[in-house]
């Protein structure tokens, strides 16, 4: 029987591990670890070392997901997956995604060698943020059989395709189908920081995710005519950047006027990009999210109309391509109830909520029951080096996770379930 101080010790270790992994970065001044980059290889070595020490067998699948397996009490028993992602945004914090992987290993450690009726596969997804290729969830998509030729041919800024990145990492893209979920997977559980202010404002350390909002990601290209900044009169310009800028403000306006809609233009690239040249081509990204799929799609249609009309008025063209179209996803009601019970059993007050951030759980939910546990995020700050966690909350998450495993191991309803794949 573990005590609260055992969970605090495990939590201290988990936080130190997250901080250590934050040092594996492509940038010297902050954490940036994208899909199959060299620092991702270092990260794999470190996490593999921790998992091997727990008696887990560790492998990397063909899209670069790190997978550690802790067997069931009886050979051939079913398994549950627990994990999150190991990639980061640029200038990232230490906990987004990483904490979920580290906590999964911490939960295996909390079992102290004790085996359950199901095995535990800890999974560190290779790509969730969509930073390198603009397309998120490459790691989890492989588990549900959604890494297709189009995705493999997608290129990063240096012209390297997903397929080539996989090969350069020493993996074989022809083996991606072997990463897919097998019939023995009973469910997926993900621990993650909330990345928002709700739990903190309610004074609740842990949240139970009921649904993850839908999102679209697109790239818009405004094309005008590059020309001399000193000689071209204002009324004769076809300035792609001015058109894009007007549209960026239109995006913000629309989102401010539709309840619960969030829309973000997070990246702008102007060509040729010189002080004395009118921009001839501008690429901007759009990230748009709403709990209602209908509201999101209607807002997106409106923003496309506005891009076209702004462009036409300015003698510019606007084209777009979709990088992600993901509907809102409900979490599994049985697992969600079990998580709520586990939090109550440990004497904490759960809070049911929707997630505005995307998570690997929304992809896994296509094929297996999936559920998520949120930890409050101090100051609601994430995707920034100031991202943090409270030691107490991490200890509580481990305690509740351990309780959840105990409950599931004793649940005939759960043990009778099989994969929907
Ligand atoms: C993942 O961090 C997301 O963008 O929701
Ligand atoms: Mn993130
Ligand atoms: Mn994340």
Account of the protein in words:
The chain is of the alpha+beta class and 421 residues long. Helices cover 36% and strands 22% of the residues. It is built from 13 helices and 16 strands. Strands 1, 2, 3, 4, 5, 6, 14, 15 and 16 form a 9-stranded mixed β-sheet that branches. Strands 7, 9, 10, 12 and 13 form a 5-stranded antiparallel β-sheet that branches. Strand 1 and strand 2 form a beta hairpin. Helix 1 runs antiparallel to helix 3, helix 8 runs antiparallel to helix 9 and helix 10 crosses helix 12. The chain is globular, with a radius of gyration of 23 Å. The model has no long low-confidence stretch (mean pLDDT 97). The structure holds glyoxylic acid (GLV) and manganese (II) ion (MN) (2 copies).
Q: What would the keywords be for this entry?
A:
alpha+beta, nine-stranded mixed sheet, 36% helix, globular, binds glyoxylic acid, binds manganese (II) ion
């Amino acid at each position: 029987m573990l005590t609260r101080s055992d969970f605090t010790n495990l939590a201290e270790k988990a936080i130190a591990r997250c901080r250590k992994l934050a040092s594996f970065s492509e940038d010297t001044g902050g954490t940036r670890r994208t899909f199959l980059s060299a620092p991702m290889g270092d990260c794999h070595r470190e996490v593999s070392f921790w998992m091997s020490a727990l008696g887990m067998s560790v492998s990397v699948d063909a899209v670069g997901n790190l997978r550690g397996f802790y067997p069931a009490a009886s050979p051939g028993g079913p398994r549950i997956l627990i994990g999150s992602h190991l990639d980061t945004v640029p200038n990232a914090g230490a906990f987004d995604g990483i904490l979920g992987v580290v906590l999964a290993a911490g939960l295996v450690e909390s079992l102290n060698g004790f085996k359950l009726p199901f095995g535990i596969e800890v999974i560190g997804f290779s790509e969730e943020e969509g930073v390198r290729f603009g397309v998120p969830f490459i790691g989890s998509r492989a588990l549900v059989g959604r890494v297709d030729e189009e995705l493999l041919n997608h290129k990063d800024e240096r012209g390297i395709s997903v397929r080539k990145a996989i090969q350069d990492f020493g993996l074989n893209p022809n083996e991606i189908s072997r990463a897919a979920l097998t019939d023995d997977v009973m469910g997926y559980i993900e621990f993650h920081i909330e990345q928002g202010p709700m739990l903190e404002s309610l004074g609740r350390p842990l949240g139970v995710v009921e649904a993850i909002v839908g999102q679209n990601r697109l790239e818009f290209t405004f094309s005008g005519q590059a020309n001399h900044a000193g000689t071209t009169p204002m009324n004769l310009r076809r300035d792609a950047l001015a058109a894009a800028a007007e549209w960026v403000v239109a995006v913000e306006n629309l989102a401010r006027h539709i309840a619960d809609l969030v829309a973000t233009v997070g990246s702008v690239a102007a060509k040729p990009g010189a002080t004395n040249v009118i921009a001839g081509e501008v690429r901007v990204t759009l990230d748009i999210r709403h709990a209602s799929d209908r509201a999101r799609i209607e807002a997106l249609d409106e923003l496309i109309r506005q891009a076209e009309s702004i462009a036409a008025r300015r003698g510019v063209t606007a084209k777009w391509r979709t990088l992600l179209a993901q509907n809102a996803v409900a979490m599994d009601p049985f697992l969600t109830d079990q998580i709520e019970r586990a939090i109550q059993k440990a004497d904490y007050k759960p809070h049911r909520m929707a997630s505005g951030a995307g998570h690997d759980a929304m992809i896994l939910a296509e094929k297996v029951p999936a559920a998520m546990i949120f930890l409050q995020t101090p100051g609601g700050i994430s995707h920034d080096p100031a991202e943090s966690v409270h030691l107490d909350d991490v200890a509580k998450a481990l305690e509740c996770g351990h309780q959840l495993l105990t409950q599931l191991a004793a649940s005939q309803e759960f043990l009778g379930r099989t994969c929907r794949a």
